[in-house]
Design goal:
277 residues; Rossmann fold; 2 domains; 7-stranded parallel β-sheet; 4-stranded parallel β-sheet; 11 helices
């Protein structure tokens, strides 16, 4: 039987010894490091202590509504001091897939202006008469965008999505995310997209390629069972759930053993405690 290790004040510290040996610490952002524009002070402290201990850090967000430059600025403003090579998004993974496996194909993108620019700057041709439809977390969504996407997919266009998250946590509660937009398009067309971001293999492959770190030497911290934790469970990366975002203790209790994380912490503050004492 697979056993999850749950943090408590009385937990023997040796139960978490495997985490101390990890080389690369991967962090989800929304709901794990911050909520909206409000950082968790304990997360800032934990990131700093990891770097001081010689550990490597990677910030990975499925939220592709903003480009990497935006997240570097935001993480800097919130006190996380991101360094070169420490930031990756589901948009990056999707772009890499298109460039490597669909070279020259035109794309209709249901996404924000920042994501549109990121695609265009990568050399991807965006058009309303495209061979591929890509949908994402689009805070500029219109009915026309949805109609165009559905029309193209019904006409035979391939359908991709940057990430499957249904909701994005903010300081004011949840707002509809990429998975909710995909659900609309699927309901209208009957076509389910090929997803990227967490928990899909293309994401892990890109992390390994960019960092040179093997999966046995990684761990991932996040607030969602079906993205952050699923990435670890599917591919053998140590997975650590925190309760500062979407997932509740009841969600973990109701999940099948195979879908539960390796470790559960109330927040990154407790992870800091068991790793650094």
């Amino acid at each position: 039987m697979y056993d999850t290790v749950y943090y408590s004040k009385d937990s023997p510290r040796e139960h978490f010894s495997s985490l101390r040996e990890k080389t690369l610490f991967i962090f989800d952002q929304d709901g794990t490091l911050y909520l909206g524009s409000r950082p968790f002070d304990f997360a800032v402290r934990f990131i700093g202590r990891l770097r001081d201990a010689g550990k490597r850090v990677l910030f990975f967000t499925n939220n592709a509504s903003h480009n990497p430059s935006y997240y570097v600025e935001k993480l800097s403003r919130l006190g996380f001091s991101p360094q070169s090579g420490e930031l990756m998004t589901s948009g990056d993974v999707t772009i890499q897939f298109l460039l490597r496996h669909r070279p020259g194909k035109t794309v209709y993108l249901v996404g924000t202006p920042q994501l549109e620019k990121q695609f265009a700057d990568s050399g991807i041709v965006l058009t309303e008469d495209a061979e591929i439809v890509v949908s994402s977390f689009d805070t500029t969504l219109t009915y026309k965008k949805l109609d165009t996407a559905c029309r193209l997919i019904r006409g035979g266009a391939e359908y991709l999505s940057t990430h499957p998250d249904f909701n994005c946590p903010t300081e004011d509660g949840f707002i509809p995310d990429s998975g909710a937009i995909s659900a609309f398009i699927t309901a209208s067309t009957g076509v389910t997209p090929t997803y990227f971001g967490k928990p899909y293999k293309e994401t892990l492959e890109m992390i390994i390629e960019q960092t040179g770190v093997l999966k046995d030497e990684m761990c991932i911290f996040g607030d969602r069972l079906y993205t952050d934790i699923a990435l670890g469970r599917r591919f053998g990366v140590a997975s650590c759930l925190v309760y500062t975002g979407e997932t509740t203790p009841e969600d973990v209790a109701n999940a099948s053993p195979a879908d539960r994380p390796d470790f559960v912490f109330p927040s990154l503050s407790e992870a800091d405690e068991v790793i650094f004492g």
